[in-house]
Amino acid sequence: xxSWVRFKAFINRNILLVVTIPGIAGxxxxxxxxxxxxxxxxxxxxxxxxxxxxxxxxRYMVGYGHA
Length: 67
What we know:
Strand content: under 5%
Helix content: 55-70%
Distance between the termini: 53 Å
Shape: elongated
Structural class: mainly alpha
Largest sheet: none
Number of strands: 0
């Protein structure tokens, strides 16, 4: 089986992951860039990156710190 056929079979089997993972990464990167731009978000209104916020919340929920 040629490498192109194997690659095509991999894409067909995993199309959801092939589309979803880069999409989520792109959305997070875009969100971070918008947060850094003063034209869109003032310094005092900036929020942390969502995964960091989620980790802080999870840490708070298990009792290892403050949110």
